[in-house]
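Project standup — Tuesday

K.O.: blocked on the structure for the chain from last sprint. Re-posting the sequence here as requested.
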Amino acid sequence: MKNPILAALCALPLLCRAEGLPDLGDVSQAAVSPQQERLIGEQSMVEIRADLSYLDDAEVSDYLNQLGYRLVANSNEPDMGFEFFAINDNAINAFSLPGGFVGVNTGLILIAQSESELASVLAHEISHATQHHIVRMIAGQKIDTLASMAALAIAILAARSNPDASQAAIAGMQAGSIQRQLNFSRDNENEADRLGLAVLQKSGFDVHAMPTFLERLQKATRLIDGNVPSYLRTHPVTSDRVAEIANRVQPIPYHLVADSLSFHLVRAKLRAAQKSPQEAVEFFNDALGAQKYGNQIAQRYGLVLALLRSNQAVRAAQEFAPLQDQVTQNPMIATLYGQIRRANGKDKGLAAFYRTATQNFPQHRALTYDYAELLLQDRRNADTLKLLNEQIIAHPTDSHLFELQARTYATLGNQQNEHHALAHAHALRGDLHGAIEQLELAKQAGSDYYQLSAIESELKQLREIAAAHSKR
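H.V.: unblocked you, prediction finished:
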C-alpha cells in the first residue's frame, strides 16, 4: 500500500513534480492531462474538507458514493475516479470539481422527492465532469501552477454559488475574465442534460425525474420572490431547457422505480441532525402517529436517532423493536442497533454482534468505527489494531481510522506509532504543519531503525512542500 501521508499529499502544491508528473506549464497553450486535472480537484478538496460545512459522516458519504458509482458505471468514462461528498447546507445546490469530485448540499438531498430525482442531479454533475467542462473554463486563463488553478476552481465555485460574494472570492484572479464564465454555457448544460439522461436510463432510474425536479424548483422560485435556489443560479434553467429535457423523455414509458431504503434512511438522518433532539423527537413522533408522509421505516429510524441524542436509550430500544422485524439486511439499521445496545449498558453479546455485522457489511465504515470503540473500551488492543489495519487497506484516505489507530497505540504506550498515525490523520485533512509536528514527535519517541527511516523520508518531503507553500 502506498504511504498514506504521501497519498494524501498528492493534493498539495509542487508534489506533482516530486511524484514524477510533468510541470503544469501554461495551460492556455496545452490541454490539461487527466493527472493534472485530478490534482487540481484534489487541491480544491483540501480547502473543502477543512471547511466546517464539509459533512464528515461516513454513512451519508458511503450512500452518495454507492449511488454515484451506480451511475458512473454507465457514463462515458466509467474508469474515472469519482468521489461524492455532502455539504451541510440547506441551500439547494450540487456541483462538480475537476477530476471527478462531486458535492451535494444536504438541502438538495432533502428536497428530492425520489431517489431518481437525486440520481438525475448526480448524473448531470457526472456528465459535467466526464466532459471536463469545469477544467475547460479554468484552462482559458494563463495560470502556471496547480495551486493557482485549484484556487481558481474554488473561486469560480464560490462565485457561481453566491453572486454577492463573487468579487471577494475572485479578488486578484483576473476578475473580469472570470466573471464572464461564472455559469456553464447553454451548450455545456445541454450536453450534461443529454448525457445525464442517458446515464440515468442505463442505470435503471426514472428519466422523467429530471424535468420533474427542475420544474418543481422553478415553481418554488416563482413563489418565493428573489430567493433563487443556488442550483438554478449555477445551472441556469430556462423554460426552453426544461421543455427540451421533457421532450427527450416523453417517448420513454413511465415505469415505477422504487427508492432504496438507504435513500430514505439518509434523508431521515439528515433531517434529525437539523433539529434539536427534542424537536426531532416531536417531528418523527408526529410523522409516525399520523402516518401522513414519508417512509415509515425511515421515520422510525429518525425517531430512534433523536431519542439516542436526547439520552433516552431505553425508549430508543423500545421504538427500535419494530425495525428488527421489518428490516433484516441493512447496514444503517445494523449500525443503529449496535449504538442502542451500547447506550443501554452492559451487553455480553455486543462484541459478537459487531463481529458478525462487520463481516456482513465490511465496507460500512460507521460499523467499523463503533466496533473499534467497543474493542478499545474492552482493552482488546490486538483485535482493534487488526480490525483497523484491515480497514485502512480498504480505505487508505479515511482520517478517522488513523485517529482510532493512534488511540489504540496510545493505550499500548507506543508513542512512536501513536504520533505516526496522527501524522497520517493530519495529512489526510490537508494539515501539513500538524503532520510535520506529529512526525517530529514520532521521531523523538522511538528507536526502531526502519520506522525512523520512513519518518525521516516523510519529513523531508513534507518540509519541501511546506517551504513551497510559504513562497506562494
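K.O.: great, moving the ticket to review. Residues 449-470 form the longest helix (22 residues). The beta strands are 83-87, 94-97, 101-105.
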